[in-house]
Design a protein that fits this description.
Layout (H helix, E strand, L loop, with lengths): L1 H18 L16 H20 L8 H24 L12 H23 L6 H25 L21 H33 L1
Helix pairs in contact: 1-2, 1-4, 2-3, 2-4, 3-4, 3-5, 3-6, 5-6
Amino acid sequence: MIKSFRIIIFLLTVFYSLEQFRDIDPAMFGWQFRYLTIWTLTANLIVAGQMLRLSTGKTTQKWESFVSFVVVMNMAVVVQYWRLYFMDPLKVSPVEGTIWWKEYYLHVLGPILMWIGVFLILGVFSRLKPVFYAAIILGIAYPAWAELVLHPLNAKPIGTVTAGLPYPFLNNMEFGTRMVFYGFSTVANFVFILIGWSVAKGIAKLRA
């Protein structure tokens, strides 16, 4: 049953990863990898592949710290996306470019399936220090990618302040405000780490 579940998760993740290549705007530098959501989807694909390899006996490596961090990435994507979406859908994506079944997989179903697989089947968050380090690295890497690479090389989306940053709402912020937002997002990831650790501990106690 676990193997079948992991096959389904892997195939779904492969499908949605490949689907992203159908929506590429060749005029936009960075393609779909402009978005943190796709960074997370790619990480989910790596995790799904490794979990399937575990089930087929091709490896014994659980990649526990990496998987724990991917849990956090999914939490960040879900919380930030829906927080901004309910404020104004145009903050995160143009209405004309939204395909509902992709959006719900990327921001609801995909993360939930991944959480089920790692919390209930694999087990995560036994070592927190590497996960905190990874959160710091992501907190530097993605803003650097957005500000130093995507921003100067893209002309869209256009906001009230600037243009070229991947998410529409970022283009409505002054540089200083964006830095505060990036800092807040990193701190939020630290909170998600603690939430993940608490959930993992709670599940372990229930099983004991």
